[in-house]
Write a structure and sequence with these properties.
The chain is an alpha/beta fold and 150 residues long. It has a single domain, classed as Alpha-Beta Complex (YbaK protein), CATH 3.90.960. The protein has a five-stranded mixed beta sheet. Strands 1-7-6 form a three-stranded antiparallel beta sheet. It is built from five helices and eight strands; from the N terminus they run H-E-H-E-E-H-E-H-E-E-E-H-E.
């Protein structure tokens, strides 16, 4: 999936920031000088039937699996392997954007992100961040908005 083409096709205002390759939001924050609380991480989980689902949360917080299970109606959820995450979204872990995934997946968005006009997120590769407006992330995902914080 070409993230740039997806963003242009969907009339999304965006800004890319090239950086050194990172796998985690903390590293991305350090190399880009963007504060961790201005970054949103997109994390792929799988339910007990191995169906992928996505959680989007501020990078300075962690997802409560218990809360995600409750909001998704799943008996159990676990972090997806890198292979499953990439197959489901078409992006590598550490670069998964909150929109433009290969498959339409259930998305759970932490309610604390609602007070942000925009966030920096995975930019489709491990060497790029993208700045997106929250309203566009919500419009393109139609997410379940809930409390996901551990």
């Amino acid at each position: 999936m070409n993230l740039t083409a997806f963003l242009i096709k969907n009339n999304i205002e965006f800004e890319f920031l090239e950086k050194k390759s990172t796998r985690h939001a903390q590293e991305a924050s350090e190399v880009s000088n963007i504060p961790l609380d201005k970054i949103a991480k997109t994390i792929v989980f799988v339910d007990r039937d191995s169906r992928p689902l996505i959680a989007i949360i501020k990078a300075d917080h962690n997802v409560s699996r218990h809360k995600l299970q409750s909001h998704s109606g799943s008996k159990s959820v676990r972090l997806a392997s890198e292979e499953i995450a990439e197959k489901a979204t078409s992006y590598p872990t550490g670069g998964i954007p909150p929109i433009g995934h290969r498959n339409k997946l259930p998305v759970f968005l932490d309610k604390e992100l609602l007070n942000r006009e925009y966030v920096w997120c995975g930019g489709g590769t491990r060497t790029r961040l993208v700045k997106l407006k929250m309203k566009d992330i919500i419009r393109l995902n139609d997410p379940t908005i809930c409390d996901l914080q551990r």
